[in-house]
Amino acid sequence: MANHIVKVSPLDGLAKPAGSNVSLEERRFLGKVTLRGNPENKDFLSKVKDVLGVDLPLTPLTYVAGGAYTVHWVGPDEWMIHTQEDGEHALVLALREALEGIHSQVVDVSDYYVVMRLSGPAAREVLAKGSPLDFHPRAFRAGMVSGTRYANATIQISQLDDQPSYDVQVRWSFAEYLWNYFVEAAREFG
Amino acid sequence: MLLIECPWCGERDQTEFTCHGEAHIVRPKNPDELTDEQWGDYVFFRSNPKGLHKERWVHDHGCRRWFNVVRHTHTDIVYGSYKPGEPAPEVSEEALKGGKK
């Protein structure tokens, strides 16, 4: 068995946006866990809160950041939890133990997705070039998360602040495509 | 382009969704007892109206949930969405005549 594991990212070695109005960084090897369960089951909600330290967001299109975990609403019975690199192992064990006997699902998807952070004054324009989602502040603000698409990639996007900064989560196999699309889309904004 | 209202995510661009045909097709409970004609009816034949049509949509680039939509097949106007198990929204005569939602 290998005792030395080298992690590689599909974004290794790719060029970044050249100008200063858009910045793009990979959030390398972020831990990612999907959680599914019945939000009407109080037992489920309280057991999850015991582990995460925060209430699951039940309002559509919102996320909650607290301590080590950021918990995103994905659907009415589904959440996406982000944590620091390698934090997913302990989280999966803790959630599975806490939810023993409760109809639910906990899956480590850290290697299935890649998260990149897009920020800067022109970040909103870059997003608007490839996505049908309305990124105007009247429709999408800090604290919100949504599934949508960018060009041909299915993404999950959350807004972190009014700079604006966004975390964009995409399937591993689409990461290079999306990254290069962002870099190309950012060119006109300098 | 259509704007489809996802019951959870709100109004979104049509390209985030896929339509999967007529809604409320109930699978027969006794397939063994059906004639070929009856089974063919269930599998292949749809109402295909010119007018209001209840159809199944899935928000596959968003929350990935299934729901139903009432759409007019001639004007393409979407009169509303509803979650599985919920009753379809009523469409008034005026709304139909006026050609508006």
From TrEMBL, chain A:
Query: Which InterPro entries does UniProt cross-reference here?
Result: SoxG, TrmE/GcvT-like
Q: Which domain of life does the UniProt lineage start with?
A: Bacteria
Q: What is this protein called?
A: Heterotetrameric sarcosine oxidase gamma subunit
TrEMBL record, chain B:
GO biological process terms, alphabetically, are: tetrahydrofolate metabolic process
- Highest taxon of the source? Bacteria
Q: Where is this region: Disordered?
A: 81-101
**Which Pfam families does this UniProt record tie to the protein?**
SoxD
GO MF terms listed in the record are: sarcosine oxidase activity
Q: What is this protein called?
A: Heterotetrameric sarcosine oxidase delta subunit
Q: Recall the taxonomic lineage recorded for the source organism.
A: Bacteria, Pseudomonadati, Pseudomonadota, Alphaproteobacteria, Rhodospirillales
